[in-house]
Amino acid sequence: MKGSRFWAWLIFAVGTAYFFIPLIATFEFSLRMRRGEYSFDAYRVVFGDPRFQETFAYSVTVAIFTIILGVALVVPTAYWIRLRMPHLRPIVEFATLLPLIIPAIVIVFGYIRMYGSSSPLPFLATARGTDALLVIGYATLALPYMYRAVDTGLRTIDVRTLTEAAQILGAGWITIIARIILPNVLIAVLSGAFLTFAIVIGEFTMASLLNRPAFGPYLQNIGANRAYEPAALAIIAFAITWGCMSVIQILARFAPKSANRPN
Q1: What is the pTM of this model?
Q2: Around Cβ 108, how many Cβ atoms within 10 Å?
Q3: CB-based contact 111:210 (threshold 8 Å)
Q4: What is the pLDDT of residues 88-121, one digit of tens each?
Q5: DSSP secondary structure string, 43-71?
Q6: Nearest 5°: CA angle at 93, between 71 and 159?
Q7: Which residue has the higher pLDDT, 171 or 261?
Q8: CATH code, 216
Q9: Residue 4's pLDDT is what?
Q10: In a domain, 24, yes or no
Q11: Short-list 223, 232, 260, 206, CA closest to 66
């Protein structure tokens, strides 16, 4: 018993060191911009850079639209699958896993071929059209996480009973989804939303190949041309990601437990 506990703590310590030592070293290096002393000059340079502000604001805006699109697609689909077409669940779950298999670069080249300036639908010929395709692409990349978060939330409520009660009171399908189902799975939706936000903020391939001023390409550009600022940006990116993960963990504590009822 004591031996197993020792090995468990040893493995935990090794894993913790493997994760935190490089992070601590990166943070320490980011403080060395001023020769001979530690300072937060690299962070001041990063936060004061107009390109940082522009790219971060752009990625946040794209993330918001991506979350809205993902919720609008996933919540009704997961709800309808659970309520009326449970036999299609394996097919839908397989389809939602495809973005984990298909690389983002394949999706981008498909966009360029189908929506280039010489195609019948030249979305890439305008900035707004390219932004729309980028949002759709990000929603595709986040689909596995958003769908599973929402589907898990739907398992905790009695979908059929809530739907029948709402229909007896005269509610339509849009009202049922917007005012009955969505509020009951809001914690799950928020978890999927924060995962989507973390994906969009750090994504590089799509934004770079579509030539959009996103935060991911900015991180790569700074990393190729500066010394201390990339370390500061890495710490900032980790903080953003950890913040999202922490919020998800906090929200999970308030999520309703599964009722284990057939739907």
Answers
A1: 0.83
A2: 19
A3: yes
A4: 888 998 988 988 888 888 888 888 888 887 778 8
A5: HHHHHH-HHHHHHHHHHHHHHHHHHHHHH
A6: 60
A7: 171
A8: 1.10.3720.10
A9: 75
A10: no
A11: 206
Residue carrying structure tokens 């020792």:
6
Q: Residue 173: pLDDT above 70?
A: yes
State the pLDDT confidence band at 3, using cuts at 50, 70 and 90: low
pLDDT at position 147: 92
Distance in angstroms (rounded) separating the CA atoms of residues 229 and 106: 31
Which residue has tokens 């005012």? Answer: 179
CB 253 within 8 A of CB 149: no
Amino acid (one-letter) located at 139? A
> What DSSP string runs through 103-167?
-HHHHHHHHHHHHSTTSSS-GGGSHHHHHHHHHHHHHHHHHHHHHHHHHHHHHTS-HHHHHHHHH
Domain hosting residue 100, numbered range:
50-254
Query: For residue 40, is it within any domain?
Result: no
Residue 18 lies in a domain: no
Angle CA(260)–CA(262)–CA(263) in degrees, nearest 5? 120
The amino acid occupying position 128 is R
pLDDT band at residue 263 under the 50/70/90 scheme? very low
Once rounded to an integer, what is the mean pLDDT over residues 69-90? 90
Please determine, for residue 261, whether its predicted confidence score (pLDDT) is greater than 60: no
- Vertex 22 angle, CA 21 and 24, to 5°: 65
Work out how many domains the chain is built from and give that number. 1
- Whether residue 139 is contained in a domain is answered as yes
